Structure to design on (704 residues):
């Protein structure tokens, strides 16, 4: 199934749009997002709540709610265009075979009346990755080992596991089919700090061991720095900055990214925590020009127009008139 | 942290991991045992209350004593030798006869003690003799009368319930997929039809299909001379089943579909359904494993409640359809003041209810692994 292509980008997204229809109008949850991600790298997508991070994940995985209005753009996974696939082919050939996900609330993401081993082995059997049930359970055992869930937990039901264990099971489920891309949608936001750190360590270990490509969606900038190779900043449904993690954590360019970084507390350093005044604009009717202009400290006349996403340095894209 | 947790749980759990089915069985047996005791307790209390009420808390004894005395006096008067006795001797003889008779019937034991004997007799279906009613075979044994009627009731209600369950569950699943469609709106609009009981619709069904169209019988279990061959008999029973089953069905189906469809809708918005979709399961697999399975416990609860309601509606329904079942028997017995039959029918109803609820409880435990006896202890 996997093709080796000369193009080193595993995932390339061009002009992805995902708009929802609501009673009050159209919500532009993801608007014209373009980026590409290389194999084996981990992309951290950060931004405030309600800026379209989770919708971006849904867009990539084609997990659309009923009220979708627009879903357009191009998604290339390892060179194959996914948007032109029918739903049935997408389900058979892409879902969980090539892309999997770890959901936001792992508490509720496991079926309460099915043993966890059956749930983890299920995608293997559904997609016929294995020929026998024994083989499927063997692969499931491997996945449990990889994420650090004791094997005797396999025959338990989700309600018999703690939150951290459930999240690990969800992770095992995402890894069991050996997919090319795993989308983690705030995998640790519902857990306590120690468990968060544990899961992060597991992710780091997995990244080192099997070189899977992750997209980690989070609002926890500090924790995500552990894992990041690349960083993407979302604001009001748009991608405003995309660059190497090293650059992002030290010296981001977009005023919004700077604001975000300034709000992260650091140890040993005497600084006043920054915050960005105001609230993200409503995605129902976003402002015409730069969507951040209203809250931007460096606003000037040009900001009335929408800035393009420009490559200011190799692999460093910014959507701001200050950086052209 | 992982390694610590691992060591702690390895020893007892390796065996457990190997045999998850044994685990499930043990859990269900324990649960069933506790539920059985609970159901029996409920039946005992229900029957005891019936015994107390049917005897009017002991007042019936006074009536019976009066009846005995009257019978004794009457039989004495018909005896010509009595005239030779003196009035004291006569009185003494009456008292003696009355005492013998009361002793024979056990009336000399105080009622509170006797009530427990009645309770035991009732529970063991040792129901005594009917006062007026007889079974078709001519017996006056209440047990025989009731056992003769029981199959008719079971056939009718089992047919109706099974039909109702299967059709309602598939229709509800179908509508939950088409939430907000025209059909969905029609079903929701028809829901108030369940405000009327089954026999109400039964009357109209009889009017339409038996009286006007003359295609189905008015009532009864089989045709007037019962058909000779087994197949013809079976077909005749089926024909007679149509209207009463339809009456039960119409009075419950829309409300049931409506509420179950809502359960399905609630459960299909759970995160694990979304996950199942992301995992690439086909929609029929999602529906079966991720919507139907987790919803079943809720549906079974609602079904159990509905059954309890429907059993009580049986009395009027069977009377309307002249169905020779328990309900009609109870109706006849009440009309004839036949206390042993009333008590007997009530006992059987109590048993039927308890058995229904017990069976549903077991099914509930089978479909929901979270059901366990005891709050903390059962958690591994």
């Amino acid at each position: 199934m996997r093709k080796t292509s000369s193009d080193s980008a595993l995932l390339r997204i061009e002009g992805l749009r995902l708009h929802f229809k609501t009673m009050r109008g159209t919500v532009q949850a993801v608007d014209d997002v373009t980026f590409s991600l290389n194999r084996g790298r981990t992309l951290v997508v950060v931004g405030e709540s309600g800026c379209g991070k989770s919708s971006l994940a849904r867009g990539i995985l084609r997990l659309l709610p009923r009220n979708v209005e627009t879903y357009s753009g191009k998604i290339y996974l390892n060179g194959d265009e996914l948007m032109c696939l029918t739903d049935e082919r997408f389900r058979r050939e892409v879902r969980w075979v090539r892309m999997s996900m770890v959901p936001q609330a792992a508490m509720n993401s496991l079926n309460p009346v099915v043993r966890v081993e059956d749930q983890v082995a299920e995608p293997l059997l559904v997609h016929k990755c294995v020929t026998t049930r024994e083989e499927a359970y063997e692969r499931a055992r491997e996945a449990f080992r990889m994420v650090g869930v004791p094997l005797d937990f396999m025959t338990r039901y989700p309600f018999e596991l703690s939150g951290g264990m459930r999240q690990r099971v969800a992770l095992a489920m995402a890894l069991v089919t050996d997919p090319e891309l795993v989308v983690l949608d705030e995998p640790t936001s519902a857990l306590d700090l120690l468990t968060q750190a544990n899961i992060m360590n597991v992710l780091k270990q997995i990244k080192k061991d099997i070189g899977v490509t992750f997209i980690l969606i989070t609002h926890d900038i500090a924790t995500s720095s552990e894992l990041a190779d690349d960083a993407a900043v979302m604001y009001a449904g748009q991608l405003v900055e995309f660059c190497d993690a090293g650059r992002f954590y030290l010296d981001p360019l977009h005023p919004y990214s700077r604001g975000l970084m300034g709000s992260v507390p650091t140890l040993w350093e005497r600084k006043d925590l920054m915050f960005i005044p105001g609230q993200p604009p409503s995605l129902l009717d976003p402002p015409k020009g730069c969507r951040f202009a209203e809250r931007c400290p460096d606003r000037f006349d040009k900001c009335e127009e929408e800035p393009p996403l420009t490559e200011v340095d190799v692999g460093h894209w910014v959507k701001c008139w200050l950086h052209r | 942290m992982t390694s610590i947790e691992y060591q702690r749980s390895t020893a007892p759990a390796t065996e457990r991991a190997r045999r998850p089915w044994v685990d499930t069985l043990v859990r269900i047996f324990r649960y069933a045992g506790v539920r059985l005791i609970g159901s029996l307790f409920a039946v005992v209390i229900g029957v005891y209350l019936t015994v107390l009420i049917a005897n009017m808390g002991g007042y019936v004894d006074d009536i019976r004593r009066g009846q005995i005395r009257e019978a004794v006096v009457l039989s004495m008067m018909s005896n010509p030798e009595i005239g030779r006795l003196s009035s004291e001797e006569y009185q003494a003889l009456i008292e003696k006869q009355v005492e013998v008779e009361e002793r024979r019937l056990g009336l000399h034991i105080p009622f509170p003690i006797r009530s427990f004997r009645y309770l035991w007799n009732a529970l063991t279906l040792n129901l005594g003799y009917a006062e007026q009613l007889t079974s078709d075979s001519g017996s006056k044994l209440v047990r025989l009368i009731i056992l003769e009627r029981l199959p008719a009731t079971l056939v009718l209600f089992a047919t109706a319930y099974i039909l109702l369950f299967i059709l309602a569950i598939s229709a509800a699943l179908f509508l939950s997929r088409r939430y907000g469609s025209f059909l969905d709106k029609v079903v929701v609009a028809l829901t108030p039809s369940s405000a009327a009981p089954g026999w109400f619709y039964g009357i109209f069904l009889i009017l339409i299909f038996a009286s006007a169209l003359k295609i189905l019988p008015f009532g009864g279990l089989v045709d007037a001379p019962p058909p000779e061959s087994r197949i013809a008999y079976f077909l005749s029973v089926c024909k007679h089943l149509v209207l009463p089953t339809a009456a039960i069905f119409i009075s419950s189906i829309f409300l049931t579909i409506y509420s179950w469809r809502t359960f399905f809708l609630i459960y299909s918005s759970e995160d694990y359904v979304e996950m199942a979709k992301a995992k690439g399961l086909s929609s029929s697999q999602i529906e079966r494993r991720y919507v139907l399975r987790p919803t079943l416990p809720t549906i079974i609860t609602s079904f159990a409640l509905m059954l309890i309601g429907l059993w009580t509606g049986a009395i009027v329904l069977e009377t309307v359809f002249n169905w020779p079942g328990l309900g009609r028997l109870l109706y006849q017995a009440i009309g004839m003041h036949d206390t042993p039959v009333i008590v007997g029918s009530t006992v059987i109803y109590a048993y039927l209810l308890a058995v229904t609820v017990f069976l549903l409880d077991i099914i509930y435990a089978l479909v929901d692994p979270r059901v366990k006896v005891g709050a903390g202890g059962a958690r591994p």
Q: What stands out?
A: Residues 1-17, 374-380 of chain B have pLDDT under 50 and may be disordered. Chain B has two domains: 25-54+125-367, 57-113. Residues 289 and 366 of chain B are 15 Å apart (CA to CA). Chain B has 13 helices and no strands.
